[in-house]
Amino acid sequence: MTKIALLSSVSLMSIVLCCLGCSAPKVSSSSQPLVSAKSTRSPAVIEAEVERLLSLMTLEEKGSLVHANGKFSVAAIERLGIHETWLSDGPHGVREEISRHSWDAAGWTSDYSTYLPPLTTVAASWDRNMAQLHGNVLGSEARHRGKDFILGPGVNLARLPLYGRNFEYFGEDPYLTGKLAVEEVKAIQRNDVAATVKHYALNTQELNRIGVDAKPDERTLREIYLPAFEMTVKEGGALSLMGGYNQVRGTNANQSRHLVMDILKGEWGFKGILMTDWNVDINTFDAAMNGLDLEMGTDVSEYSQYFLAEPLLAMIRDGKIPESVLDDKVRRMLRVQLTMGMMDKQRLSGQRNTEEHQQAAKKIAQEGIVLLKNDDSILPLDKSKVRNLLVLGPNVDRPHGAGGGSSTVKALYEVTPLQGLKNALGENVNITFMRTRKSAAILPIDGIFVETRHWTGTPAWNTEFYSSADRTQRLSFDTAPDSAYKAKAGKTEFVTMSADVRPKSTGVHTFKISALGKLQLRIDGEVVFSHTGTSKKIVRHNVNLSQGQVYRVDILYDGDQEFLLGWDTPGNIFSSRDDVIAAAKKADTVIYVGGLSHGDDREAIDRTDMKLPNDQDSVIETLLAVKPSTLVVMIAGSAVEMPWAAKAKALLWSSYGGMEAGNALSDVLFGVVNPSGKLPITLPHKLEDTPAIALNDYNAIENLYPEGVFMGYRWFEEKNIEPLFPFGFGLSYTTFKYSNLRLSTNALKKGDTLTVTVDVTNTGKVAGSEVVQLYIGDVAASVPRPAKELKGFDKAFLLPGQTKTLAFTVNQRDLAFWDVNSNDWLAEEGDFDVLIGASVADVRLAKRFSYNQ
């Protein structure tokens, strides 16, 4: 389907708003400007109405507002005019409609949304305007779908490159994350939707995410993992926070008195609601007494059995919990409902799938692409000189919207890099798309074929464990990310893995099996293959399958080792390495688009290593040897090892780019857009260079955070480890000069602020944008401190020869560390350095000032 045809469907999709028999929020097809007069929602009026409504409620009605009555809803109190509250997953698009009481898709045809680039792309833009644009679209589309809360943005930090949800967040730095998240929150809430900042706090891995216990020291907690949450509360006015799955110092984060009562609702004065994620490890008394306000998902048969449902009311009736505790939760819920206009006839109705929103997605994707290498000025490409283009790589023609977990988006369309290149080059250029791999490779069946879903939304294989080979007594149930399995060493297991699989072509599908043990393959209940393997030798079996038909695939395994099920689909889609080499030699331009996918970056599972999957390194090495000018594009939500990077002359880094990703990438490749993105994470040479791995603090039981405040780039500088590419790094098709650094004072006094100004000039031949970064260094401190800490950034667009003056404000908090003795922020007297750079490793200008009490 052409782009024109796709866009022409927007108007149709935006008016087909029937619910097809599902119980769901009512939506309006009308649209309004994203500005609303809210004089009737003044704090005084809202607080008075909160008290009035609360005074009229029965105990049971109060209780109905602090727990879910559906997968994504909270009950109405119709007699008081309190509407049902509807929530939706984000944070880069409104999730497809889910059935009211199950994780099944509701089956709507009217729940397509704009698939925005994930927040790691926003972070790579280093642009507050992009965060505002992102939040504005997200909030508007949530309202158009009848949602009251959008579950985002996420502000957890990329402590570990293996973390499955890094792509959902803003990178590794608390200041960059916080400042961008503040703009995102404000923009969402301007659309009469409550932003839900998540996951509070210390949710830094998916490995045993519910059970792992985070135990950082207080200074590390305050300086690294809480500032972004604090900024969204104090500066962004966030109406809602979502607690983490993980434990914090022995109890679930949602019921941690220190996190919630002492800090969030105490020190920060948070007046909104704290809600749970789905299926968290809480209990009634601790959750109620320690500040949890809304329980959204618990694995019980009836909503009345949620911890904050009938069990809470019973404890209140028995005098074990004061009713005032419940009253506080209800006040918060009512306050949020009134603030976002749920009882307001003038409430905004939002817009969805508009051309404006699609162009916003494209703009964010463009701004978030990072140029890492451009030796010999290979880029931008000259369209007039591209006549025979070879494109390779697993991400050339792979969509990413419907993956990753709860952040999955039912995109109206998605432009892949291949389609973007075709759109840019037209019909006069010969574009060859090839796939290659090791000839004997066996890979798990790709998730794009798997219909079965983990409850988070990711493709999954249901995994059942039995006591014996007859499979009459089931011991346990789990899910697996793909069709591969390793048994626990030394123990024979009886395992059945099952999934609904939908082929994308008709014909012979060659199933490839490697098994150590006994394996049986069934399709729709019929045994099609049996095998007992004593080696990892690959065996094959052909089966005729039809495109679009769903087949139940069961793998029955008895053994104490491992198995792997893969397949080759009809047609020879993989070219030999010799054919690829010949095509590369013939082509005038070669582009490799690889990296990760949401088979790797996904909720509920961490990666097991930092390597590129599926023989990509070997393919890239081959291409660079044959065609040194090969352009390499990495698409990933987390760091990957790139052992061939020194050989690549042109290297681009992009996170998942949303529905316009292919067009955005082509615009950068051909110079329509000058890349201006900067890395929001450090790209290490190898996994062992990162602190959690180097200090052996990645496990399923507890994380002690022994690196302390030296996380991310702070660690690399402290340990003098040179990364592959440093935090804040990114090139341009032009050049910039920094000059004339000035400080408003050389002696800052307590309570005052310091203004830092610097001139930046475009010294090249094309227009472009530069991100200027301000770091602070404490010259001599009483505690170990990072050499540099980001405390300011700004992005300036400059025409050739143009100069702009950028100004930054430094305050006392920017100089401070968390003092464990006074239990407060402390800025010590002494000298501090202002460091202005193009990255953390590229400081261009510096000045010193003193701070005195």
UniProtKB/TrEMBL annotation:
PROSITE patterns, alphabetized: PA14
Tree of life domain: Bacteria
Domain PA14: from-to ranges: 456-585
Pfam families to which the protein is assigned, alphabetical: Fn3-like, Glyco_hydro_3, Glyco_hydro_3_C, PA14
GO molecular function: beta-glucosidase activity
Keywords annotated in UniProt: Glycosidase, Hydrolase, Signal
GO BP terms in the entry: carbohydrate metabolic process
Range of residues in the leader sequence: 1-23
InterPro entries tied to this protein: Cellulose_deg_GH3 (IPR050288), Fn3-like (IPR026891), GH (IPR017853), Glyco_hydro_3_C (IPR002772), Glyco_hydro_3_C_sf (IPR036881), Glyco_hydro_3_N (IPR001764), Glyco_hydro_3_N_sf (IPR036962), Ig-like_fold (IPR013783)
Family: Belongs to the glycosyl hydrolase 3 family.
Protein name per UniProt: Beta-D-glucoside glucohydrolase
